[in-house]
Amino acid sequence: MVTIQDVARAAGVSPATVSRVFNGGKVTAARALSVRQAAEALGFSPNRLARSLRTQQSSVIALIIPDIENPFFTSLARGVEDAAQRTSLSVVLCNSDEDTGKERRYLEVALGEQMAGVIVAAASQDETDLGPLIARGVPVVAVDRRPRDAEVDAVRVDNQHGGEVATRHLLKAGYRRIACVTGPEGASTSEERLAGYREALHAARGEAVADSAYVRHADFRVEGGRAAMRELLALPEPPDAVFVANNLMTIGVLDALDEAGLTPPGIGVLSFGDVPWASLVRPSLTAVELPSYDLGRTAADLLLQRIDGSTSPLQTAVLRTKLQVRESTAGPAGD
Hints:
The chain is α/β, with parallel strands linked by helices and 335 residues long. It folds into three domains: 4-44, no CATH class; 55-157 and 292-320, Rossmann fold (3-Layer(aba) Sandwich), CATH 3.40.50.2300; 159-290 and 323-329, Response regulator (Rossmann fold, 3-Layer(aba) Sandwich), CATH 3.40.50.2300. It is 43% helix and 16% strand. The strands form two sheets. A six-stranded parallel beta sheet has the order 2-1-3-4-5-11, with helices on both faces. Strands 7-6-8-9-10-12 form a six-stranded mixed beta sheet, sandwiched between helices. β6 (178-182), α9 (188-204) and β7 form a beta-alpha-beta unit. α1 (4-11) packs across α2 (15-22) and α8 (159-172) packs parallel to α9 (188-204). The protein is elongated, with a radius of gyration of 24 Å. The N and C termini lie far apart (61 Å). 44% of the residues are buried. The model is unreliable at 52-56 (pLDDT under 50).
């Protein structure tokens, strides 16, 4: 962390002079300019330093995510770290494993260690409790997933719009029995992506019917996607396409299709969440591209504003997705 002594050395003045510059004391214009230029070059934040000294908070923030193995959260974490490093804050990465008990322990550690702030992708919309942090005045930003009724800043993806666009694409490609493999019930991202899927089918009216028989909730992980797809393939009328609500479950879905001797685009596969290998596999994978890095960067920027003492109204930033059309949704078998 950049200190007042670092700024003093860079500006060629005493630490007392630096303190006077940032606290309204009497300093010549030339020295004040020198100090401010040095502070800017070093990324020194007097507001954050002063707040830290007043509250005895550390220069560390916590990032609590559900699954570090998911490339989406890996990219999100990089966005958080890059933004934090610009202001000399360090990031402690915590993996909750979608476990609210484990998540609660991490939140307690953040409070006990007097961390400067917390960014959290909630393990549960209903069970994640940010109340103790809020009550103690610890800045919190919810990213990707927001606990219900939590009075905090938030950054999220427009999941419903992304799910709707994805399902409309499958309909336009000629698929009719479109299944949805979504995440755990109660997770905001699961429900929003499922809502987009249902809205698209409902809007299609005579073209397709939103049938709950084609919906499966899983665990956002490879095995959950595999098990859900096996169930769908065992239906009397199996789906001719599947919209999968995250990238790890898509791997499981593709594995189940391979076991059954089926390949896209004969059965369409569309993933919510792109992966680096999506364009390399054959057939290449159609995916909803998520702005994961920007989610992390934006969440960190909001948190840093609160750490610096911002009292502006709570904000919710909503970032849009982008559909990357590839070979896996070219049309059903026989078309």
